[in-house]
Amino acid sequence: MSVMELAITQMGARGEGVADDGRGGAIYVPYTLPGETVEAEVHGQRGQVRRVVAPSADRHEPECRYFGSCGGCLTQHWSPAPYASWKRQLVVEALARRGLGDVPVAALLDAHGTGRRRVTLTVERGKAGFMAHRSHDLVAVDRCPVLAPALQTAPAVAAALARAVGARKPLKVHVLASDSGLDCELIGVGDPELDARVKVAGVAEAFDLARVTASGELLIERRRPVLDAGGVAVTPPPGGFAQATAAGEQALAALVTRALEGQPIVADLFCGWGAFGLRLARQSKVLEMDSEKASITALEAAVRGTSGLKPVVARTRDLMRDPLTAAEMKGVTGVVFDPPRAGAAAQAAEIVSTPGVVKVVAVSCDAGTFARDASVLADGGFRLEQVVPVDQFRHTAHVEMVGVFSR
């Protein structure tokens, strides 16, 4: 370890300031900003700020008292304009590396809304919180300003549930703010004893929880957790994926449905419980596919309980291992796919091979794999008309993007 004075020249792709190490390499220093001079303890390529010698004019007071110790946010101290420009540039640079540098990239769309509606907390020794940056050390929190108002009790809820089941080792608790109340999933918990179930019921009553599950098994449901997908009520599976913010889901869905307007048959791939597909079913016949059977079951139940939708066919299928083929997409004219962070290059290749598909919308949470999949579509004759970066994860390096392709 050595103490060095460093000039921060840029913001790295992970939200850490970057300095030149004097030998042609880089030193990554979290909680710093471009243009600053800092004194830091340096261990190899990593630095830890001791003091800011010359602050950036873009530095401002973070909104959270845990900022700098909790690793959840890295850019709360950065003014909105340069922060938004940096996030957009992450997408621009990823596309350029794949030869798509001439594609128009819109300004960053702020979809934070009222805050994040889902969170996974770690409970250890009776305290709930998040890990420190690049560490397994828990930082206990009693509130988090980037969470939606309904989730401000989440740390207390998570700690109470851990006590109820008698957790003796670190326990992860996933909490979703559904429209009908908090939906809590205890991750990795086995079949609790009767006494623990009674205590869980007491916690649910005290905090007015909608549902509590453990590793997918129902412990108590005081009312069904419900999410609204454009007027369709969905009960998501325990611990199931949902877009980080309600505003983010609405923004992404609006871009998807607008781009696919007029397409008679649409395939919604990696569909989850149908955040896009259920909205698309107002205007098109929809083929839904996802690897999670519980999500498909939730989607089918939502379709049965809703009138006015066009036909929806839902199937469980692991599209990463077994992409939907061109022959199976016969009749499909539009496709939306929203894969995991690893992307969907194999599925993109099958879309290219489907002659009837004239419009594709790619939704992604990873700029690198998005650009790779976009290049597959572009090489196959699709034109990438526009990319819209969407910010659901304020103060982090995570950015969603929506690309619209046509041929």
How would you describe what is shown here?
The protein is of the alpha/beta class and 407 residues long. 23% of the residues lie in helices and 30% in strands. The protein has an eight-stranded mixed sheet with strand order 6-21-22-20-19-16-17-18, sandwiched between helices. The protein has a seven-stranded mixed sheet with strand order 9-8-7-10-11-12-13. A five-stranded antiparallel sheet has the order 3-2-1-4-5, with no helix packed on it. The termini are far apart.
Instruction: Describe the main β-sheet briefly.
Output: 8 strands, mixed
Number of helices: 8
Spatial strand order of the main sheet: 6-21-22-20-19-16-17-18
Shape: flat
What oligomeric state do the depicted chains represent?
single chain
End-to-end Cα distance: 56 Å
Give short descriptive properties of this protein:
single chain, 407 residues, alpha/beta, eight-stranded mixed β-sheet, seven-stranded mixed β-sheet, 22 strands
